[in-house]
Design goal:
Layout: H1 8-15, E1 19-23, E2 28-30, E3 39-44, E4 46-52, E5 58-65, E6 69-70, E7 86-89, E8 93-98, H2 100-109, H3 111-137, H4 140-153, E9 161-163, H5 166-173, H6 177-189, E10 193-196, E11 199-202
Antiparallel strand pairs: 1-8, 2-7, 3-6, 3-8, 4-5, 4-7, 9-11, 10-11
Helix pairs in contact: 2-3, 4-6, 5-6
């Protein structure tokens, strides 16, 4: 709140409204109005946003990790969109939550808080556009490899091993498991990765 230039008196008031909550791996939150929880900061873990296509395939929009804010849970700015955005914790996670009404009050009173809100909206929409552009214009090979690289960057200290299944990758990319498996086997033949059950290891 210091970056938003919130007064000391207001910081003391608003900080009392912040609370912590834990979520199990696989727990989901809908983006509908009744599910709005506030401005969420991920203390640890990971949260992905995705939509489900008309043919029941999941399409990953973006994934947030430690230190990221979840703007979809903020003031329900997406409540008028015509498709449902789903939020799922892909790891056991803990988050800090500033209730929507409190964040709205901050945004109205402090211009820098409002700008923070708008910047986050812009960043998340940019990620959504990038994801949909990738789906439309990139080959599955490119999408799988880029997905693995992004997952590896967010993998903490372990920069060579991912604990993920072919099905989880397929769901994240909105593709068929069989197609993803073929791409992964091609990458293995190219000596870029080693496939094990539920594990993908990267080679130097």
């Amino acid at each position: 709140m210091e970056k938003w230039e919130v007064s000391k008196e207001d910081r003391e008031i608003y900080c009392k409204r912040v609370y912590s909550k834990s979520f199990a791996k696989g727990q989901r939150i809908a983006s509908g109005e009744d599910e709005c929880r506030g401005l969420v900061l991920i203390e640890y873990g990971a949260l992905r946003a995705y939509i489900i296509s008309s043919y029941a395939k999941e399409i990953n929009l973006f994934t947030l990790h430690k230190g990221d804010y979840c703007i979809l849970s903020a003031s329900c700015i997406f409540k008028n969109i015509t498709f449902e955005v789903n939020l799922e914790f892909v790891e056991t996670s803990s988050v800090w939550i500033l209730p929507s009404k409190v964040f709205d009050q901050l945004s109205l009173k402090y211009p820098k808080a409002k700008q923070f809100h708008l910047d986050l909206v812009s960043q998340r929409l940019s990620k959504v556009v990038d994801s949909l552009s990738s789906l439309a214009f990139e080959s599955l090979n490119q999408r799988v490899f880029n997905f693995l690289l992004d997952a590896l960057k967010a993998n903490g200290d372990n920069k060579k091993r991912l604990y993920i299944t072919h099905g989880e990758i397929a769901n994240a990319l909105g593709s068929a498991r069989e197609a993803v498996s073929r791409v992964l086997k091609d990458l293995e033949k190219q000596n870029k990765i080693i496939l094990k059950r539920g594990i993908i290891e990267f080679l130097d």
